[in-house]
Amino acid sequence: MVKLMMILLGVDYLRNRWRSLMTAGWLLLLIGIGVFIDALDGALGFPITFVGWLLLIEGALTLAVSWAGVGGQRRLRHAKGIAFVLTAALIFEGNHHGHFILSILIGLAFVFDGLLQATSALVVRYRRYRVALGFAIFEIMLGVFMIQPYPTHYKGTVPYCIGAFFIFAGWNLIVLATRVRKLTSNPAVWGDASAEAASVAGDRNDKRDMQANARPTLQAREWDGPPAADEPALTVHVWTPVGSSKAETQWHPIVDRYIAAVDLNGVISTGHAALESPEGIYVSLYPAVEIDRSPDDFARLLRATRENDVPGLFQPSYAIESKAWCESTVRVRIRNYDPARLDRFWRGYREDTTYNLTHRNCSSSVSRALDAALEGAAGRLYGSRAGWGALFRMIVTPELWVAVQVRKRAVTMAWTPGLTLDYARALSMVADPRPYAWLKLARMALTKMRASRRAWRDEGTLAQGGGSNADPPARV
User: Fold this and answer.
1) Where are the domains of the chain?
2) So where does this one cross the membrane (predicted)?
3) Is residue 330 classed as helix, strand or coil in its secondary structure?
């Protein structure tokens, strides 16, 4: 969460507000601890019914406007609305059974997520897999705590979750404020200290180039849909495993969407991802020599260790790559990006052509390039007038939380074309925000009411005009 906020808001925006972020972080942390402790003795002082009403209202509004979404956004709104309404119903049910069901569902979600993270850490073995393994064990223990009845007999499940949410949110803000206090560049984008120092030098040496190549200020702050076909925009190309397979594939739910597809001959297809900008940058990393992806060797290749590093090759352009292979399956286009930061990232990244199936592949390259291009996107919409509204708008965007979870899965496992596709779609909704769904619905209703009133007024005018212009009756 911290890294994504640093990317989307930018270091300059956050550094100017580090004191307020620190204060808010400590306040949320203390409130969360208080709520969590209050739930331990079984005598709840927390207004749990009020939370139920908030969840019910939010869920109902989300379901009411879910039709306004497109594709994955519509499915996300349906899932969010149903989950909120179901949670509210269990809270209102109020007796032992409601609390029990809610505790089991939340606890199993924590346990499943922890087991998934632990398994991926042990299989992939990336550089910091031991840290991720520790967090996974903590998450499993938290899930077990939610499932077992001691000490509140399931009555404190919702306050536990709310308290934990406040604690983690406050801790994230404290860490964020501490990190951005003296930063001059964004480590969430540029990585380690050496890369950060290089980016600072790049900022100084390329300041004139960045100003010359900077895009003009965006005229809008929100859009009703994705960019038009003739509108300049950053494009993320994704070849899904199923869509890029040369033969008919076997059906494996979730696996062939996010990991790999296996055709009828046993050949594995992992798909591909690339990023293209109107300025001519094309990020598409591919192994210089085709890797044998037979089922026998595939498990060994999943290790993000240096012995699996092979020479890679950056493709020259989308036109050449698509002609030699096939057209991309899905495209995600984003208006609000910084070509100068993308150019600076690309000049440094392309110097290393190493390819690793799980640690440095096509999808991880695209995701890192996307982070660089979208650095400061949320604050850039408002320019020098960016205030706390930019932070609030970003936090209440559901796609931000989706991007956080996708990024977490990718970092602890591996970036795949499927995860990159979900990540790009989620970030596109934050960088190019849409109107609030409920506000859009209200505007449409008001517009329709005004149009109806205007039509009735016109009909009344015509009726009156027709009566006055009619021929008088003939005299006898």
Assistant:
1) 2-180, 214-431
2) 21-40, 46-70, 77-94, 100-124, 131-151, 157-177
3) strand
Distance CA 91, CA 99 (A): 7
CA-CA distance, 416 to 113, in Å (whole number)? Answer: 18
Q: What is the pLDDT along the chain (476 residues), one digit of tens a residue?
A: 677 877 888 777 788 888 888 898 899 899 888 888 877 765 556 677 777 787 788 778 777 766 655 555 666 677 777 887 887 887 777 666 777 887 888 888 889 888 888 877 777 666 677 777 888 898 898 888 888 877 666 777 777 777 888 888 888 888 888 887 776 666 556 554 434 444 444 444 444 444 444 454 565 566 667 787 788 889 999 988 877 677 677 777 777 777 777 777 766 777 889 999 999 999 999 888 776 555 555 556 666 567 677 888 899 999 998 888 888 888 999 988 989 889 999 998 998 888 887 778 888 999 999 999 998 887 777 766 667 777 777 777 778 888 888 888 787 777 888 889 989 988 888 888 876 655 555 555 566 667 777 777 777 777 666 544 444 444 43
